[in-house]
Amino acid sequence: MSFTHSVGFISSTDIDNKRPSAITNEPLRIAIIAHCLYPIAQPYAGGLEMITQLICDELVAQGHEVLLYAHKDSRTQATLVPMLTRAEFEATVYENEHDTVGMSREEMYQYLVYQRVLRDIIERDARGEIDIVHNHSLHHIPMMTGQAFGARFFTTFHTPIFPQLRLALLTLRHGTNTQFTAISKHQQQLFSEFVPSHVVYNGVDVESFIANTQPTDSLIRENGEFYFWYGRICPEKGTHLAMQYCIEAGKRLIIAGPKSNEDYFNEQVAPLLSQDRKNGEQKLFDYIGHVTKEEVNHYLVQATAMLFTSTWDEPYGLTLAESLACGTPVIGFDVGASAEIVTPNTGIIVAKEDKEAFIKAFSEIKHISRQACRERALQFCSVSAMVEGYLALYKAAVRDSQLKKGFSNSRNEPLAQSAFIHDKSNSLTGSNPKLNHTSNDCCITMSLEER
Q1: Which of 64, 96, 216, 248 is least surrounded by CB atoms within 10 angstroms?
Q2: What's the average model confidence in pLDDT over 6-29?
């Protein structure tokens, strides 16, 4: 089965070779749509929230004007346009309204959130205030309504193909002028059945991590040999596998992360911890719970290696990038994008659940250069590398749009004040007087895990 698409497959390496010349010395005006359920703020609900914040803050740092449509409690260097709150939703929708349209209450809430976001963006665009729209929402409404922007509208695929995404993809596969990005080549291939996409790898704030690049032999003499596993404790992250391999190899393991699946923890992890406690001073495991980024950094720089035992195809794998940022090599399964991030000189990737190969890697990992790990992170896993990839695509889209219009709508036309000062007469709340007091004024806050 074949379909006609308006954009072709390229990777982030292609972007470097085909980057267009700058279209203007003026900053771009970019509207970014976040997921509506959680604030774009620390402590992050997950990797998506972290990535969204990093993109916004880096774009602002580079001088671009950014609108972030997000949960009202978000923290960002961009101009925050708060999304419809649940209280506002309840104030304007009948108690049984969702039943009348055959939706769950939650589905109806999200539907109205994104409809209002897109209405506001379309109105701003009609006034010539927006160059690019970048959708990170994971919802079908922005993907469908975004057709109004053509190639200036980007959707990034951060996750597997969940139902909300599939709903839009079933239509868009027949043709769309909008563009798509994937966070790895593995992710690109996953979505290729529906639409082509550009690869722009995720990035982490590498500079915010303290790295230890001394030789591993010296590190072991100072701290002893131990390994670090961190992430959500759930079946798909394979915590118990890391523990079993360490038992067989007689290696110390520090485990960090929230119990996101209590049944799994109680059935697979807790018995191994209990059994280990009987070993007294010779025990191998320490479970330290859910820890901060600074604590993760503290353990990683002392660890001989980070263990990655995910049994599902991770779209990216932020823990891999963070480990490399600390100068810490990785022993991990070849799932999802892991082999795209961890190279042979920064870690050892083995077949999924290959116990023998994994245990063998404990001795081989000591020969990996920790300096090479840090350098890989700086070159490949940084926020600046990620945003550079997006900016190349943004500029190409705006350039092409200007060429098609023949520059009839010149960007030299003056705008009233800043394009991204929230116009009170066009608030997301609409005309309902019950709501207008809550979000007429744009809240601007300053600051600034897929675990």
Answers
A1: 96
A2: 50
Cα–Cα nearest to 117, from 157, 71, 73: 71
**H-type alpha helices, 7-46:** 12-18
**Token pair of 28, please?**
């771009």
Q: Which two tokens stand for residue 273?
A: 């911890």
Amino acid in position 242: A
Short-list 410, 402, 342, 344, CA closest to 377: 342
Residue 87: its H or E element: helix 86-92
Candidates 367, 365, 373; CA nearest to 348 is 365
DSSP letter assigned to residue 32: E
- Label the pairing between strands 285-287 and 65-70: unpaired
Contacts of 193 (CB under 8 A, 6+ apart): 173
User: Could you give the CA distance from residue 130 to residue 152 in angstroms, rounded to a whole number?
Assistant: 9
Could you write out the DSSP letters of every residue in 174-186?
Answer: T--SSEEEESSHH
Give the domains, in start order, of the chain with CATH numbers.
Answer: 12-203+382-439 (3.40.50.2000), 206-380 (3.40.50.2000)
* Helices 47-61, 383-405: inter-axial angle, 10-degree rounding: 70
Cβ atoms of residues 99 and 389 within 8 Å: no
List pLDDT tens digits, range 203-243: 999 999 999 999 999 999 999 999 999 999 999 999 999 99
**Is residue 228 classed as helix, strand or coil in its secondary structure?**
strand
Beta strands in 26-92 (DSSP E): 29-33, 65-70, 79-82
Is residue 316 within 8 Å of residue 450, measured between CB atoms? yes
The whole-model pTM stands at 0.81
Q: Tell me the pLDDT tens digit for each residue of 284-341.
A: 999 999 998 999 999 999 999 999 999 999 999 999 999 999 999 999 999 999 999 9
Neighbours of 258 (CB within 10 A): 15
Tokens of 426: 């066009």
